[in-house]
Design brief:
Blueprint (H helix, E strand, L loop, with lengths): L5 H9 L5 H19 L2 E3 L2 H16 L10 E5 L26 H8 L3 E6 L33 H8 L5 E5 L6 H7 L2 E4 L20 E5 L2 H11 L29 E5 L9 H16 L3 E5 L7 H16 L18 H12 L2 H14 L5 H21 L5 E5 L15 H5 L6 H6 L3 E9 L2 E8 L5 H14 L12
Helix pairs in contact: 2-3, 7-15, 9-11, 9-12
The structure holds glutamine.
Length: 484
């Protein structure tokens, strides 16, 4: 069960080689054994998961099985899940039990997948190392002294150490792809609006997007088949025909034009990472693809623009945590204002407070034009760069992250160094494009991720290119030592 793909697990359930109850128990046992050193899960509820597995077995018995029925999936603790604690990695929501399901959770429940538990994450998804979680840092299974990346670090560690066959994540500026790169598995951020944000705790609403985290592109495609679809409960959910992402994986990639932005290979990229990426590109050439030089001239503005837009939206979204309706409330206070102040002072961690302060500042009357409006204009420039690039190529490739996993604590005191982790991922969020990270090699036994960026709605193209690469290489099948 340990290393089987989702398709193989599904076939085994179909053939009754094992039941969902057995499969779920197998992974819960792994969580019990390995979670104390990884801290990948915030909430594990064995009784709930097993009850879901029993129901899934009934569905299978009744012949109502679809591809992921009976398969346990770890869910990032940003997705509201009815009856489950949903904390978003924050003290503010430490005891919040969600009264409803997010659409993503609903879709998995609907087809009889099993919720294996809620995974650890940076507080309100703000971070690149999973060190801002109120529930403690997550460790990288490849080296416990290193960070797993963030903010979906719990899901990342869970997939890399095979505590779960697959997991969900969210990506506002890189939080699926950067941890996928640092932990050596496959992660995909869909086109903005493809997966409903309903019930997904909001960080920066114009950027947030949920996606799959799994061993292979094929597994990600199968999860995407479940996760996407129009949802009238999310005003930014796109009303378009649902695609089948797993049907086009095997298409030949002869003549595929791969654009390589020169800006992705300038300062800031570790030279060993660069070598791994270049080797992966040579592999693509061998597979029949053509490499084309392109330019994304405004990429260097992506981080500054993001760190105006994302905090602005966050400061607005997080104003709901006032101690009145739900979540944490301070114990002692004099009056209403005092209650607000103390609740937010005690309930939020430092990184969240930093973003609220920045966001409130850039939105304030005197500074709106200078910062927020300017950042929105840059966002448009970045989008246009991609538009022009896609006139010359079919997909864009480059590194997912500037380095391999770094040591815990190394960047904690230096927010700007931390923000640079997303230098290759953020521009795609600003442009709303789909992008994924796939394992492409190692440096000193730490994984390196290759990023594939598609044009809007071209998930099938990047999944296809990733799948063909994975059929010809085995980087994605390697797993960290000491987890068997
Ligand atoms: N690291 C980025 C940030 O801290 C992105 C986080 C994310 O994608 N959720 O904002």
């Amino acid at each position: 069960m340990l290393n089987l793909s989702l398709k193989k697990l599904s076939q085994a359930l179909e053939k009754k080689e094992f039941t969902s109850v057995e499969l779920t128990q197998f992974f819960l046992n792994r969580v019990k054994k390995l979670n104390p050193s990884l801290n990948a899960f915030i909430t594990v509820d064995e009784a709930k998961s097993m009850a879901m597995a029993e129901k899934s077995d009934q569905l299978i018995q009744a012949g109502k099985k679809t591809m992921l029925t009976g398969i346990p999936i770890a869910q990032k603790d940003i997705f509201c899940s009815e009856g489950w604690k949903t904390t978003c990695g924050s003290k503010m929501l430490e005891n919040f039990i969600s009264p409803y399901d997010s659409t993503v959770i609903h879709k998995f429940n609907d087809i009889g997948a099993v919720n294996l538990g809620k995974t650890n994450m940076d507080e309100f998804a703000m971070g690149s190392s999973n060190e801002t979680s109120y529930f403690g840092p997550v460790r990288n299974p490849w080296d416990l002294n290193c960070v797993p990346g963030g903010s979906s670090g719990g899901s990342a560690a869970a997939v890399a150490a095979r505590l779960a066959p697959a997991a969900t994540g969210t990506d506002t500026g890189g939080s699926i792809r950067q941890p996928a790169s640092l932990c050596g598995f496959t992660g995909l951020k869909p086109t903005y609006g493809l997966v409903s944000r309903y019930g997904m705790i909001a960080f920066a609403s114009s950027l947030d997007q949920a996606g799959p985290m799994a061993i292979s592109a094929e597994d990600c495609a199968l999860m995407l088949d479940v996760m996407t679809g129009h949802d009238e409960k999310d005003s930014t959910s796109l009303d378009r025909k649902k695609e089948n992402y797993s049907n086009f994986l095997d298409k030949k990639i002869d003549g595929l034009r791969i654009g390589i932005p020169k800006e992705f290979f300038e300062d800031g990229l570790n030279s060993d990472v660069q070598k791994v990426i270049q080797e992966a590109l040579r592999q693509y050439e061998k597979l029949g693809a053509k490499i084309i030089d392109i330019s994304l001239p405004n990429n260097h503005l992506a981080i500054p623009a993001y760190y105006v837009i994302a905090p602005a939206e966050a400061s607005s979204n997080l104003s709901r945590y006032d101690g009145v309706r739900y979540g944490y409330r301070t114990k002692e206070y004099d009056d209403l204002m005092d209650m607000y102040f103390k609740t937010r002072q005690e309930g939020f961690g430092d990184e969240v407070k930093r973003r609220i302060l920045i966001g409130t500042y850039v939105l304030s009357a005197g500074y709106f034009d200078a910062y927020y409006l300017k950042a929105q204009k840059i966002r448009r420039l970045i989008s246009n760069d991609f538009k022009l690039a896609y006139e010359k190529c079919d997909i864009i490739m480059g590194p997912s992250a500037p380095s391999v996993a770094f040591k815990s604590g190394e960047k904690q005191e230096d927010p700007l160094a931390m923000y640079m982790q997303d230098i290759f991922t953020i521009s795609t969020n600003l442009a709303g494009l789909p992008a994924m990270s796939i394992p492409a090699g190692f440096i000193n036994e730490l994984p390196v991720g290759l990023q594939l960026i598609g044009n809007h709605f071209e998930e099938t193209k990047i999944l296809n290119a990733a799948h063909i690469y994975q059929k010809n290489t085995d980087w994605h099948l390697k797993s960290p030592k000491g987890i068997d």
